[in-house]
Amino acid sequence: MKITDVRTAVVEANYDWTFTRIYTDDGLTGLGESFLAPGLTRIIQDLKPLLVGEDPRNVDKLWSKMRWATSGAGSMG
């Protein structure tokens, strides 16, 4: 199984909710959400190339790749 796409959508309600959907070549998808995160859509799109082609079940590897890529962004990474 490999990640094929990462898409975001912002829903404006009591807060701006950012939904992120991960697509795989097996047809499975994953959905995550966050709120009160200005700029999150851009951050996710910047990280997308690190995720596409990777196995979504390898969470530790993906986390490490994203953490390393954002290490210059400050302690909150």
Number of continuous helical runs: 2
- Biggest β-sheet: strands ordered side by side in the sheet: 1-2-3
Please identify which CATH superfamily we are dealing with.
Enolase-like, N-terminal domain
Tally the structural domains: 1
Overall, the morphology is: globular
CATH class: Alpha Beta
Poorly predicted parts: none
Beta-strand content estimate:
25-35%
Rounded Rg: 13 Å
Arithmetic mean of pLDDT:
92
Summarize the main sheet. Answer: 3 strands, antiparallel
Structural class: alpha+beta
Provide the succession of SSEs.
EEEHH
CATH topology: Enolase-like, domain 1
- The CATH architecture category equals 2-Layer Sandwich
Helix content: 25-40%
Total beta strand runs: 3
Distance between the termini: 27 Å
Write a brief caption for the model.
The chain has 77 residues and is α+β, with helices and mostly antiparallel strands.
Description of the structure:
By secondary structure, this protein is α+β, with helices and mostly antiparallel strands. It has a single domain (3-37, 53-71), classed as Enolase-like, domain 1. It contains two helices and three strands. It has a three-stranded antiparallel β-sheet, covered by helices on one side. The radius of gyration is 13 Å and the shape is globular. The mean pLDDT is 92. Residues 18-71 form the Mandelate racemase/muconate lactonizing enzyme N-terminal domain. It comes from uncultured Rubrobacteraceae bacterium. This is Mandelate racemase/muconate lactonizing enzyme-like protein.
